[in-house]
Amino acid sequence: MCDLCEPTISEIDKKVLEPSCGNGNFLVEILERKLKKAGKDEYKVLIALSNIYGVDIARDNLEEARNRMKNIVNAHFKGKKNSASFLMAMDAILKANICYGNMLTGRKKIFLINWIPDGNGGFELEKWNFADIEKLREETKQTDIENLAKMSEELLHPPIKIPDKPKPKPKKKPEKQATLF
Ligand SMILES: C[S@@+](CC[C@H](N)C(=O)[O-])C[C@H]1O[C@@H](n2cnc3c(N)ncnc32)[C@H](O)[C@@H]1O
Question: Does any ligand 1 atom lie closer than 6 A to the CB of residue 67?
Fold first, then answer.
């Protein structure tokens, strides 16, 4: 499923939202893909992290998802000591981006942070709710949506090749039956 969203989701500055993220199975996969692009640069890693969002109604799942993502980042730096400001920023981003909400009935109450890199190692923050996000989705190029739809159709419903209808075999003339008297 993640491959269907490539090459977009691997880019560190492209946003991904998992609307029922559970304990983060998709989130960690997306994070790993983005980290490959970010390399070991702390600021790039924060940008990658800031563009991954997850919502769930089970709070224990959210905590587990955040911890799994933190472990992935730690493993990415392979024991290298990170700066205190990096660790604080990582916690703040995970707390804001992996958040509680009911995606069916409470979308107006869900607020997410748009972390805008300021180019100086920091971020400017913008508060978004789903009305903003849905507006952005409408602006997404129609061609992107069409391509994605085509790809998923090919994957989920590979065209079935119908074999040519076999030609009917010529009927054998019925052999004359011996008549018994
Ligand atoms: C089967 S799990 C899938 C988790 C994750 N997407 C994955 O693939 O590993 C379904 C998740 O959806 C969450 N969920 C169910 N209804 C929801 C809702 N209305 N809003 C947000 N999350 C919801 C559940 O708490 C659960 O964590």
Answer: no
